[in-house]
Amino acid sequence: MSIAFNRLADILRDRGVPTRYQGGALRAQGICHDGDSPDTVAIKRGNNGGVVIFCHKCQGNREFLAAIGWTEADLYDEPLERQQDRPADDTWIPCRERGHKRVAQYVYRDENGGVVHGVTRCDHKCFAQWRPDNGAKSGRRWSLNDKEGNRLVRVVPYRLPYILKAIAEDRVIWIAEGEKDVHALVDHGLQATCNAAGAGKWTEEHAQFLRGADVTIVADRDIPGRRHAEHVVETLRGIARSVYVVQARTGKDAADHFAAGHTDSEFLKVWSPIPYPGDAAVGA
Ligand SMILES: [Zn+2]
Ligand SMILES: [Zn+2]
Questions:
Q1: Which InterPro entries did the record assign (predicted)?
Q2: Strands 127-132 and 102-109
Q3: Is the pLDDT of residue 71 over 50?
Q4: Please, what is the Cα angle at 88 between 123 and 60, to 5 degrees?
Q5: Under the phi-then-psi rule, with left for phi > 0, alpha for psi from -120 to 50, and beta for the rest, what region is 172?
Q6: Residue 13 class from Cβ within 10 Å (0-12 exposed, 13-18 middle, 19+ buried)?
Q7: 53 DSSP β-pair partners
Q8: Ligand 2 centre and the CA of 69: distance in Å?
Q9: Residues with a beta carbon under 5 angstroms from ion ligand 1
Q10: What is residue 235's predicted lDDT score, i.e. its pLDDT?
Q11: Strand, helix or coil at 104?
Q12: In principle, which of 65, 157, 233, 235 could form an S-S bond with 193, CB 3.0–4.6 Å?
């Protein structure tokens, strides 16, 4: 259950926007404006749930919503789906004509929770990527590039809004090879990310989001997995604060590790290229 009022209070707290209760409403400055008075915006629980936002300066909520990256849909308690997320509910995939079924979909988001692109996986392990496009009838197009092959969407690591928050909270960021492993890690209380499209597709652009982070990379137990982990390490030099590389104690990857009943402290440490501050220096 997701309460819109609580989500909004979290966002304001995360952004360092001062708030206080007054006259039955949470008051905040109008972050839709620059530096105006601290009680410009009134935020209340709606009578039927949801949250009601009123900015006295712009006499409404539109600019305030834009400033925090929300749409009208975010004002409701349970339905988190944004307007531009609707393609996420459409189960059509490019290989459906071959009888394949969608089994998973992963949505990549920007800093504010906006959809950058999505990845689908079918029951025959075809992966396909789409980008939101309001000009398309389905709301999405099944390519991240234009006809000349130029990329049209940003490169962002998976679960970026959570990752940025976790870095700010000094939590360790786990990097896995794919979304399935990321979710295995998240299901065990960890903060995890990956790049879209698997081994070999991590870039320096992904690494830029991990500045100052303490990172643990889970390397898949095969040659591409090892190369992938080594490449991720290279991109994090001078960016991450610390980097460890671990492997599953059982099986090939993080999902196997947890499925075998192991905990996060039971991964095998295979390399510490950038030790935690205070660790004994690792011999070259
Ligand atoms: Zn305003
Ligand atoms: Zn398929």
A1: TOPRIM_DnaG/twinkle
A2: unpaired
A3: yes
A4: 165
A5: beta
A6: exposed
A7: 43
A8: 34
A9: 30, 32, 55, 57-58, 63
A10: 98
A11: strand
A12: 157
Element housing 246 (H / E): strand 242-247
- CA distance from start to end of the chain: 50
Q: What is the mean pLDDT of residues 73-78?
A: 80
- Helix residue ranges, H only, 49-202: 62-68, 160-168, 179-187
* Lowest mean pLDDT segment, chosen from 40-54, 65-79, 201-215: 65-79
**3-class SS at 76?**
coil
Q: What is the CATH number of domain 160-274?
A: 3.40.1360.10
Query: What pLDDT score does 284 carry?
Result: 39
Residue 264 structure tokens? 């996060």
**198 C-alpha to ligand 2 centroid (Å):** 16
d(CA 183, CA 106): 10
Give residue-wise pLDDT tens across range 170-191.
Answer: 999 999 999 999 999 998 999 9
Rounded to the nearest whole angstrom, what is the distance from the C-alpha of residue 83 to the centroid of ligand 1? 22
ipTM attached to this prediction: 0.51
